[in-house]
Amino acid sequence: MNSSETIPVPVSRMAEVCLMTQSERWQMQYEQVMAFIVTNHRRPSKYYAEERLLWN
Questions:
Q1: Which of 44, 49, 51, 55 is the most exposed place for a label (fewest CB within 10 A)?
Q2: How far is Cα 44 from Cα 18, in angstroms, rounded to an integer?
Q3: C-alpha radius of gyration, the chain, whole number
């Protein structure tokens, strides 16, 4: 390996989120909520800890 080649560094999930724009984060959150609604036929509850993450 010569000096011009770069070694790929694994990016953590937190780093990926930090590299996203606000609209990309919003879109990802929107898709998660829509997937929840399709599978459970209801909106996520703000009272259950498992579903709380889907609320803002």
A1: 49
A2: 25
A3: 17
- Hey, how many other C-beta atoms are within 10 angstroms of the C-beta on 40? 11
What is the residue-level pLDDT of the chain in tens, covering all 56 positions? 566 677 666 666 656 657 888 899 999 999 999 999 999 999 998 888 888 888 76
Residues 6+ apart with CB under 8 A from 53: none
With 0.85 as the threshold, say if the pTM is over it. no
How many CB atoms are located within 10 Å of the residue 44 CB? 17
Output the 3-class SS for 5-22: CCCCCCCCHHHHHHHCCH
Instruction: In whole angstroms, give the CA distance from residue 14 to residue 18.
Output: 6
